[in-house]
Amino acid sequence: MRTLTNRRVIALSLSVLMIFVTAPASAAKCKYDVDTVNHRTGEKVRWTKWNTFRLRQDPVMHVAISEGDRKYLGLRLMLNRGSRTKRPSIKELDNELVIAEDAKLLLLMADESILELHAAQGMFADSDVSASGANNYAIYSEIIVKYELDAETMAALTSQRLKVLRITADDAEYTYEFGKKGSDKIQKNLACIQ
Questions:
Q1: What are the pLDDT digits (tens) for 22-54?
Q2: Number of domains into which the chain is organized
Q3: Across the strands, what pairs with 32?
Q4: 53-65 burial, b if ≥16 CB within 10 A, otherwise e?
């Protein structure tokens, strides 16, 4: 029977200690806006903090959502919808930007594969108008959409870099390119709900 030398005992002890120290440390990096239990269903609900991956013209933010066993990628789009010469009515503003239930979200990954997600429910944007001179009305819209993630999609998003994201709305498609930093942010958020 082999006996453990002092060096091996110390090395083994340090390895075990590192496992116990790093596990809570990595969990502590996760910050949640929502961390509660749904009182009707008894399911644990978590929303990570919103994280911006595009700041320039139209800010886009993402969040990882866990509701019981279901996982979602949430996106918040803030879009400049252009300007009009006539002030839009409330009805026009209400229908300015719509993402239908089951609308596609296409994700181009680093290995050139394309993942397809679908909106969990239809959403209407909150739209606002501001006057910037005579007969010039600028319209801004904000919308939050949840896309359900299955185990395969979750594994792909957490294991490789996301390059391009394309959102399908009722009237257009919105495409956003990701750098390494933006992709890393999504991976870190998704790791918090695995």
A1: 333 344 489 899 999 999 999 999 999 998 876
A2: 2
A3: 48
A4: bbeeeeebbbbbb
Measure the CA–CA gap between 108 and 171, rounded to whole angstroms.
Answer: 21
| Of 75-84, 100-109, 152-161, minimum mean pLDDT range | 75-84
Q: Is 177 helix (H, G, I), strand (E, B) or coil?
A: strand
- Angstrom distance (rounded) from CA 107 to CA 74: 14
Task: Report DSSP letters for 29-96, one per residue.
Answer: T--EEEEEE-TTT--EEEEEPPEEEE-SSS-EEEEEEEETTEEEEEEEEEEEEEEESSPPPHHHHHTS
Domain span at residue 70 reads: 31-191
One domain, residues 67 and 3: no
* H or E segment to which residue 184 belongs: helix 180-191
Closest CA to 58 of 141, 164, 126: 141
Provide CB contacts within 8 A for 4, sequence distance 6+: 12
- Distance, in Å, from the CA atom of 185 to the CA atom of 194, rounded to the nearest integer, reads 15
Instruction: Tell me the pTM.
Output: 0.77
